[in-house]
Design a protein that fits this description.
about 550 residues; alpha/beta; four-stranded mixed beta sheet; 17 strands; about 40% helix
Length: about 550
């Protein structure tokens, strides 16, 4: 991202007066009236006292210092601090990209700015001060590692939460072999671990050695059954260390019995720092808008831009007491309910709509999801995939009404013009998403006594659209750059043989793709949809403009 330069401290106004520029530093917040006059909400508690209490009695540590953490859990914590419900804040720990700690936290006194992009065009601007400390999860950083060890030994520690992305829990590569750092860690003493889960398990070992103190590890990452993923990773490490005589056998029992790994479902979109937001903040007099890219390609800035709607549902399974997060809008419930909410979002009411818009947005040369929702055919496609074909198979979780959730997605979230989300970003890794986002719905139709899989139209149209997208050209016949996807090297040569306007050989081209259960979750021919998708694909490739014409045919009749 291009570096931005700022004139420090004062800025000229059109009136000829000069106005103080606001910087994200603790001492700058003392000039409260300046911030509030510009519409910035400040922490409503004594931050110095909060930091001191947190250091003495840490209750909440969070691993993963990225945008979703700052925009959601840290903001909920701030709300509870403002209301006096919590007395301690969060200690954030970053175990992958250590530059984030220096460039996005310590440079700004662990403060950040949450910019909420509201659908009515207004910006919510809130300075988040709930983070008491920021640390690197690095056994080579003696000071930070010793501090983390001290925190994990504290009996009052209730929860360690995570937003480290789905791949953060994986111990193996794409050949199912242990990653080299993980395999090496299995033979190292815990205090010398270098892999992410190895370092986490080493800290749990310190807690075990301090009296087998209970703990709860809460994955807040957007992946199915995330608590089980975390459990499997930690117990694998404990098992290997016990087998190799590095830790006592009792440690394996401890991580299985004295640590809880609740399932969760999280939903909030936090795009990369947007230039439009930077401009609006600078116009308001906020100086610290420099967005940088770290050496590990992480986009960081002193502010986070995010949508307003947010959901976090957590299985009520805690070993050392739970924080009162329900008073901040977070829902505690049963594991079965978490599973239903997650399936509602991922399989029917949000993620499939995103994928549908991503595919056809790329084909029709859109660069914003919100602009697609102004398109008559594309908005109709999103509605048909959600209301017509998705909702009938949703198992109502009870705590969130699926129809209300879908209404908010269609009417508020997707059309929000201030959310700088692109179809090209959402199209990344589509081959890895289709089995969950559409395959589960197809399976539900196949298993239903009342619904008929042959009645599906719009989901097959999306799948045919993905095949058309893989040809690497838009609806005008111009080449487009396909978004990153691990299957591109296998798929693009197949679709590269197809030409617009040529229908011969479609079955031979598609049959070994549409029957691939690892991509779609089902063999689409066995499901009774293979031939329908072939027919839709043949319509989409009739020539230039065929994508638009096909959408009109099926969505505007």
């Amino acid at each position: 991202m291009k570096q931005r330069f700022h004139v420090p401290r004062f800025m000229p106004l059109k009136t000829g007066r000069w106005e103080s520029i606001m910087k994200l530093k603790q001492n700058e917040l003392e000039n409260k009236s300046t911030w509030e006059q510009k519409g910035f909400e400040l922490p409503g508690y004594n931050r110095s006292e909060m930091i001191e209490r947190t250091k003495e009695n840490p209750e909440w540590v969070h691993f993963g210092a990225g945008n979703i953490f700052r925009a959601f859990p840290a903001a909920v914590c701030q709300d509870l601090l403002n209301r006096g419900i919590l007395k301690t804040g969060i200690i954030v720990a970053e175990g992958y990209d250590y530059e984030i700690i220096e460039k996005s936290y310590k440079n700004y006194d662990n403060l950040s700015l949450l910019v909420t992009l509201k659908a009515d065009g207004n910006l919510g601007k809130k300075v988040i001060g709930s983070i008491a400390e920021s640390l690197c999860v690095d056994t080579g950083n003696t000071a930070d590692w010793n501090r983390l060890t001290e925190i994990f030994k504290n009996p009052g520690l209730k929860m360690v939460s995570f937003t480290i992305t789905e791949k953060g829990y994986s111990l193996v590569d794409n050949t199912q072999k242990f990653l080299s750092s993980v395999a090496e860690d299995f033979n190292r003493k815990p205090a010398f671990a270098v892999s992410y889960i190895g370092k986490l398990t080493a800290l749990c070992y310190e807690r075990f050695c301090s009296g087998r103190l209970p703990l709860t590890l809460v994955s807040m990452d957007n992946c199915s059954h995330n608590g089980s993923r975390l459990y499997e990773a930690v117990t694998t490490f404990a098992e290997k260390w016990a087998e190799n005589g590095i830790v006592e056998p009792g440690f394996l029992t401890y991580v299985k019995e004295d640590i809880a790994y609740p399932w969760t479902m999280i939903d909030k979109i936090t795009p990369r720092p947007a230039e439009s937001v930077i401009n609006m903040l600078e116009e308001a007099g906020f100086e610290d808008t420099l967005a940088v890219v770290t050496s590990k390609n992480t986009y960081v800035a002193p502010f986070v831009n995010a949508e307003e709607p947010q959901y976090l549902v957590i299985e009520d399974n805690f070993k050392n007491g739970r924080l009162p997060l329900e008073q901040g809008g977070i829902i505690y419930t049963k594991k079965e309910t978490v599973d239903k909410v997650e399936k509602m979002k991922v399989c029917t009411c949000l993620n499939p709509l995103h994928t549908a818009l991503a595919i056809f947005g790329c084909l029709l040369s859109y660069d914003k999801i919100s602009e697609e929702m102004k398109d008559k055919e594309l908005s109709a496609l999103a509605e048909k995939v959600g209301y017509t074909e998705g909702l009938p198979v949703v198992s109502n979780p009870g705590i969130i009404d699926p129809k209300d959730f879908l209404d908010e997605v269609i009417k508020v979230r997707l059309p929000n013009p201030f959310m700088p989300d692109t179809p090209q970003r959402i199209a990344c890794d589509t081959s890895q998403k289709l089995s969950i986002r559409f395959g589960e719905t197809i399976k539900a139709y196949m298993a239903s006594d009342t619904l008929k899989v042959e009645d599906l139209i719009y989901i097959p149209l999306v799948l045919a659209g993905w095949c058309r997208y893989l040809m690497g050209m838009d609806d005008n016949g111009k080449r487009i750059e396909l978004s990153p996807d691990p299957m591109l090297s296998v798929l693009t040569p197949v679709f590269g043989r197809i030409k617009l306007g040529e229908k011969d050989g479609i079955h031979e081209t598609l049959k070994d793709i549409l029957n691939n259960k690892s991509i779609f979750g089902v063999d689409l021919y066995e499901a009774g949809l293979g031939e329908k998708i072939e027919s839709l694909f043949s319509e989409l490739i009739q020539g230039t403009g065929a994508v638009r014409n096909t959408l009109k045919k099926y969505l505007l009749y």
